[in-house]
């Protein structure tokens, strides 16, 4: 597979065209992230159950297929977790995601853990695109940190 | 579309003595384009052009963002440090005198290049700083305090208006927004039409007898079109306004003679004219510069200083406080010699052929919209495109994979993109070393973008 085909795997194009989790509810807490170099934007919300576990991701955004697919894949990942995720699980997932994306193509994302989002690992070879893939994950991280700060 | 006035503007760009870019940009080439051998010779002077990207020879089509540097520019900077490095205007020893002489010789080279006097050439960090210099100095003049109070001529107040156009680079918008906010003056905008072309007819309504400043790009960095300067300048002149030209995207492509264009000040950045980073030029009519207070304060810009008050040198020293950018100025002078030896008339003739090739190629492509509308007349060799169904960032990746360097994003022209319903576009821009083959490679790559992303065939 060429680098370009690796970056734009069919599953990424599919997610960017038919994204999961699009839509925000009035008044819910969101994190807005903007990639100032290209104008990619994601506004994302983490929805929690009564026990405080994150069970759903909602978002809106615009931008390149990588940033939009990434948000969709994060939403899909939560869809596949029937009982949601605790904040520390989500945090470690985000950290791992970041480590792989910053690895300049030397590390890969584990499909077991990341599901469709594992396909985003191809972006790690394109330094300029890492930020696009990270955008929704940074939004999620921001919300988790805010949640923790409130205690 | 306003292509006729654009051509008239283009025709006026250069002094009549030189059959230069004007005719090329009006589609009537009078100077001979560069021969293949000459182009090869020029390319050989740019070390970076030997680079390979993803296994392909680099096609550098991002000159509008920053130009590559010929070896002689690198050598000139290095020679200064190796042979004459010293503080300028600040010492009596032999090296200091030599450094001062080289720095001032660089200023004379810039002045000659612009058909101007050396008193009218201020070295700045870049074009952004040149525009901020003007806006800040006028802001200081408007406060009626400190040094500003000594230079009241260009002070602004609440009844005054500043006019820009809708397609300006942020560098020629934000300083004026801020100046308006500080002084209470009103910022007004000459709109663009649905293609992103300045609506020259609207200028007469926007520019009134309250207009004190008109700031406009000579050539748009997003559309590549030469602005309809005649239509803008005439009413501004009649109103007695100060006319500021952002010449960033014209300086590399046509012989820039600001005094003949009827403007009062013009700025450009060296790094877009094959010169070094970290230096730019503000050209200003002497009467204007000498009537403005400094924008920054410090040493080298003063006559006498007491503990209470400073008195300032005339321009250009007034606007170059602190240790100046000596090696960079010398590098810039070398870059201007480089373009002048080739001849901007011939560069323009060659680039016009590239512009035609580029725009003709794009015109027939389904799903491709060109910012500023189709056609190469009145335009430098630059095209920003929107690829239907594909984000600019993704589109640019396809070109990068083929070793073709282009710019994606809003090109610091967010209001223009917003007006056209876009957030970003993909910009192809040529330079003196660009070959027809490189343009063809880019066109070929662009034509494959939509099928790569599986959107070809969907409604454009
Ligand atoms: C039209 C225009 N104006 C101003 C600028 C700002 O130039 P610089 O970033 O070198 O200050 C640019 C370049 O980015 C430009 O294209």
Helical coverage of chain B, percent range: 25-40%
Oligomer: heterodimer
Shape of chain B from CA axes? globular
**Uncertain stretches of 5 or more adjacent residues of chain B:** 1-24
Using the coordinates above, name the CATH class of the largest domain in chain B: Alpha Beta
Radius of gyration of chain B: 22 Å
Q: How would the global form of chain A be characterised?
A: globular
Instruction: Count helical runs of chain A.
Output: 6
CATH overall fold name of chain A? Sufe protein. Chain: A
Helical residue percent band of chain A: 40-55%
Could you name the CATH topology of the largest domain in chain B?
A: Aspartate Aminotransferase, domain 2
Small molecules bound: pyridoxal-5'-phosphate
In the CATH hierarchy, the architecture of the largest domain in chain B is 3-Layer(aba) Sandwich
Largest sheet of chain B: 7 strands, mixed
Set down the secondary structure blueprint.
The complex is a heterodimer of chains A (151) and B (460).
Chain A: H1 3-7, H2 10-17, E1 31-35, E2 40-48, E3 54-62, H3 65-79, H4 87-101, H5 111-114, H6 127-150
Antiparallel strand pairs in A: 1-2, 2-3
Helix pairs in contact in A: 2-3, 3-6, 4-6
Chain B: H1 3-11, H2 21-25, H3 36-43, E1 52-53, E2 56-57, E3 59-60, H4 71-83, H5 94-114, E4 121-124, H6 127-143, E5 161-165, H7 174-183, E6 186-190, H8 200-206, E7 211-217, H9 229-238, E8 242-246, H10 258-261, E9 265-269, E10 280-284, H11 286-290, E11 302-305, E12 310-312, H12 326-342, H13 344-363, E13 368-370, E14 382-387, H14 392-401, E15 404-405, E16 407-409, H15 414-419, E17 425-429, H16 436-452
Parallel strand pairs in B: 3-15, 5-6, 5-7, 7-8, 8-9
Antiparallel strand pairs in B: 1-2, 4-10, 9-10, 11-12, 13-14, 14-17, 16-17
Helix pairs in contact in B: 4-12, 5-12, 6-7, 12-13, 13-16
Residues 126-128, 169, 171-172, 217, 221, 246, 248-249, 269, 271, 412 of chain B line the site of pyridoxal-5'-phosphate.
């Amino acid at each position: 597979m060429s680098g370009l085909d690796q970056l734009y795997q069919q599953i990424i194009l599919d997610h960017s065209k038919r994204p999961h989790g699009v839509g925000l509810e009035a008044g819910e807490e969101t994190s807005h992230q903007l990639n100032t170099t290209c104008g990619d934007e994601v506004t994302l919300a983490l929805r929690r159950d009564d026990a405080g576990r994150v069970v759903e991701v909602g978002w809106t955004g615009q931008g390149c297929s990588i940033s939009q697919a990434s948000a969709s894949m994060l939403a899909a990942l939560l869809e596949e977790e029937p009982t949601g995720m605790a904040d520390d699980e989500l945090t470690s997932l985000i950290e791992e995601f970041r480590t792989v994306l910053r690895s300049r193509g030397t590390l890969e994302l584990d499909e077991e853990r990341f599901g469709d989002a594992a396909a985003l690992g191809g972006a790690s070879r394109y330094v300029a695109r890492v930020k696009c893939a990270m955008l929704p994950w940074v939004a999620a991280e921001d919300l988790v940190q805010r949640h923790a700060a409130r205690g | 579309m306003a292509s006729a006035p654009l051509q008239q503007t283009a025709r006026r760009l250069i002094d009549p003595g030189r059959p230069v870019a004007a005719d090329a940009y009006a589609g009537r080439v009078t100077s001979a384009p560069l021969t293949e051998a000459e182009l090869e010779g020029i390319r050989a002077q740019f070390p970076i052009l030997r680079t390979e990207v993803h296994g392909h020879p680099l096609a550098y089509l991002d000159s509008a963002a920053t130009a590559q540097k010929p070896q002689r520019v690198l050598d000139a900077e290095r020679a200064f440090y190796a042979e004459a490095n010293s503080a300028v205007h600040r010492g009596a020893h032999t090296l200091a005198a030599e450094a001062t002489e080289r720095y001032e010789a660089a200023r004379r080279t810039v002045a000659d290049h612009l058909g101007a006097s050396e008193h009218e050439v201020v070295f700045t960090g870049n074009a952004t700083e040149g525009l901020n210099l003007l806006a800040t100095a006028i802001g200081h003049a408007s406060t009626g305090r400190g040094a500003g109070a000594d230079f009241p001529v260009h002070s602004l107040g609440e009844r005054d208006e500043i006019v820009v156009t809708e397609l300006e680079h942020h560098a020629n918008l934000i300083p004026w927004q801020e100046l308006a906010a500080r002084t209470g003056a009103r910022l007004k905008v000459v709109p663009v039409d649905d293609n992103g072309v300045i609506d020259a007819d609207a200028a007469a309504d926007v520019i009134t007898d309250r207009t004190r400043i008109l700031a406009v790009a000579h050539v748009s960095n997003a559309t590549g079109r030469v602005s309809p300067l005649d239509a803008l300048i005439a009413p501004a002149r009649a109103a007695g306004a100060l006319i500021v030209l952002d010449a960033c995207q014209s300086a590399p492509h046509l012989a820039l003679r600001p005094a003949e264009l009827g403007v009062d000040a013009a700025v450009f950045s060296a790094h877009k004219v094959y010169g070094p980073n970290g230096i730019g030029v503000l050209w200003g009519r002497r009467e204007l510069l000498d009537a403005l207070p400094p924008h920054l304060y410090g040493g080298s810009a003063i006559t006498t200083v007491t503990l209470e008050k400073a008195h300032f040198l005339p321009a250009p020293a007034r606007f170059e406080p602190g240790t100046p950018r000596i090696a960079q100025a010398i590098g810039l002078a070398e870059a201007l010699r480089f373009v002048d030896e080739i001849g901007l008339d011939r560069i323009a003739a060659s680039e016009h052929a590239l512009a035609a090739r580029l725009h003709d190629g794009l015109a027939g492509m389904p799903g491709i919209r060109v910012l500023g509308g189709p056609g190469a007349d009145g335009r430098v060799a630059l095209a920003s495109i929107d690829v239907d169904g594909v984000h600019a960032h993704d589109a640019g990746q396809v070109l990068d994979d083929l070793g073709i360097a282009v710019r994606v994003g809003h090109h610091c022209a967010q209001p223009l993109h917003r007006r056209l319903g876009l957030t970003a576009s993909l910009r192809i821009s040529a330079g003196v070393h660009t070959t027809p083959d490189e343009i063809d490679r880019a066109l070929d790559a662009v034509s494959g973008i939509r099928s790569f992303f599986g959107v070809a065939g969907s409604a454009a």
